[in-house]
Structure formats: C-alpha cells, structure tokens
Amino acid sequence: KTSAAHFVSLFEFESIYEGGSMSHRKFEHPRHGSLGFLPRKRAARHRGKVKSFPKDDPTKPCRLTAFLGYKAGMTHIVREVEKPGSKLHKKETCEAVTIIETPPMIVVGVVGYVKTPRGLRCLNTVWAQHLNEEVKRRFYKNWCKSKKKAFTKYSKKYETDEGKKDIQTQLEKMKKYCSVIRVLAHTQIRKMKGLKQKKAHLMEIQVNGGDVAKKVDYAYSFFEKQIPVDTVFQKDEMIDIIGVTKGKGYEGVVTRWGVTRLPRKTHRGLRKVACIGAWHPARVVWSRVSFCHH
Length: 294
Description:
alpha+beta, Ribosomal protein L3, domain 3, Ribosomal Protein L3, Chain: B, domain 2, two-stranded antiparallel sheet, Transl_B-barrel_sf, RNA binding, ribonucleoprotein
C-alpha cells in the first residue's frame, strides 16, 4: 500500500524528469556563493586592484591593457538575446546596466619589472618632468599643511645634461634587463562634476605587444599626454570589470550565503547553520559559512 506522501514524491519525480524544476532544496547546495571571494569583509582600499593583466603576445603591436573609470549610475536597456538553447533566444529582454564615466588618463611614469624565482621585482621607475597637482596630492596625507615640494628635485633632472643622461641610462637598463613594462597613469578627477575629491587615483597599467625595447619607447612617448578610453578598448569588446561594492551591512547567514532555513520547531532560531563542523578535527574550517558584513 502506498501513502499519499509517496504519490507526491512520484509526481515530483515525473515533473523533474520531464524537464520541470524543484520548488525548493533540502540537502543539495549547502551554500550559494564562491569561496574565491573570501574573506567577505570591508575592503581595505576603495580602488580595485588588478591581480593579473592579460597574457602578453609579442607578435602584436604595443597597447595598454587597463583603464580607470568612475560609476556614474545605473539604467536599463531592452536587447535581443542571441543565445542558442536558451528560452530567451531571439527574444527581447530587459536588463540592468551600469554607466561608467571615463575621463582621459594622464601617463606620468614607467616602471620596469624583472622576473625572479620569487616573482616580479621592480628594477627602477622613471617619472615625467611635470606632474599635476591632483596626482601630487596622492603622495601627501595633508596637502594643505604640506610644503607641496614633491618631485621638485626630480623634475630638475630634465633641465641638465647630466640628469637627462641618467634618465636615458635607466631606460636602457629597462630595455636590457626587464621583461614586464608598465606605465604609471592617473585619472583626471577634477573633470568629475559629481565628486568633491581632489586627489587623483594612480595605477600601473601593463604594456602588452612588441619586444621590451618597443614597450619602453611606447610608454615613454606617452609621458604627460592624455589617453582616451577608445585607445585602450574597442567598441563591443568583452572586458573584465574590477570594483568594490558599497556593502550591505550586517547580514545573517541565510541572506549572506543562501543556506536552507531550519524546521519550524528548531530550538534557538531557524535562520542559522545547525552544525558548523565535526568533533575532530576540533576546529572550525575556513570555508564555514557565517554571519557578518555582506
């Protein structure tokens, strides 16, 4: 004799077999979220950090591989989906999009890196002669109370023959010993009307393509010049975005990781994780889901 509960389970099995979906999960997927983003906590710095640049191809011409922008806001678009096999194929869908404002960046330096058994190590850095006030603020904690003399001695190198010779010597060392060349570029934050900040953001951008000598000459040719975003990225190009979220504050484990709620009669709370680890090893593993900032 089969009970009503068995009939329901058989019906659910048939609906799943025919291509239906489950109403909820009981045991599968103890969490929803990538462990690659752990630890989930407040970011140490507001600007995102490029962990790895695109792979270099010496056969292609020299080009820059990154750019800095500021989020202006969000809107939505209606587009036609081109995804064979999807239910939305050849249909229109409404999606949320982010608008990023990208004022031209200014190159103010070049850095050379040498490959060692312990990774990349900086050989030397060459700076431009003239630096804007907005990037000089980046090297001071309190710009108003400072003497504002950053790079004054370095800029005098370009005024003497001995100083120019020293700069050319450093560039020749880069061409001889370095394997990775990156430019130092900063944003023009003054052109952002909605921001009150006066201190520009400075970052290293890797130069890909060509041999090392061409990379050094390519980077040096951009000194004190503006780089628009269309010289780095092309239209309809797939790119990676790095950013820091505004944060959702203190969240519970169900909202933060999407684990299943416990049964109704559970003692001391439902929206929790019942078991956070084994008896032995007698410690909590790093991948255990928990409540905290989201």
